[in-house]
Amino acid sequence: MTTTTEARGQKLTAKGQATRDRIVRAAAELMYERGAQNTNNEQVREAAGVSGSQLTRHFPTKESLVRAVLAWQADSIVARHQAPELGELDSFVALRQWADSYIASQDMVRGGCTFGSLAAEVVKTEPAHRDTVADGFARWQELFQRGLSKMRERGELRPEADPAALAHLLTAAFQGGALLDQAAGDSTPLRDALYAALAYVESFAAEH
Q1: Is residue 32 pLDDT above 60, yes or no?
Q2: How would residue 40 be classed by pLDDT, with cut points 50, 70 and 90?
Q3: Taking a C-beta distance cutoff of 8 angstroms, is the pair 102, 182 a contact?
Q4: Buried b (16+ CB within 10 A) or exposed e, 89-125
Q5: d(C-alpha 152, C-alpha 57), whole Å
């Protein structure tokens, strides 16, 4: 999370940063539940417990707030993929643990992927956010690509395995599965999509 204001680019005090973070978290929750278009400043102000002047000081425009929420959600997704038990996502076991952690997660059943849901909305309605969305997905896919590249370098994946293509597959399976999960209200679609993607990745396993 950046430590500069959207308006002036100045360093924030600890108190100011805490206020900014509280606003972003509140806005993220509202946008997740209602969508960005149906979330207004008054709702954010009330949910975050801040004044109107505090809100506009940190986020003078709706666009700046949406951009901050997208960045915060991307940070959260990346952090979850860097959990200690997953290492560097550079083994078949780690990839399976990653999939299982999301399949078992109740927040997936509740409403799909937090980043993907907002990203899907704003790329259609607010083209100015396209770069922020693309950057978030690129950071996410880079984690998979780096791990898969290491597996290929160690000889665990055959040389013809394409880490970039496999990273796209894993993120696409997650996003599509999460959407179907949201519609169905259970984790079966997400489980099927992720396990199918993992099976394809494992099909490149080197024979020893």
Answers
A1: yes
A2: very high
A3: no
A4: bbbeebbeebbeebbeeeebbeebbbbbbbbebbeee
A5: 49
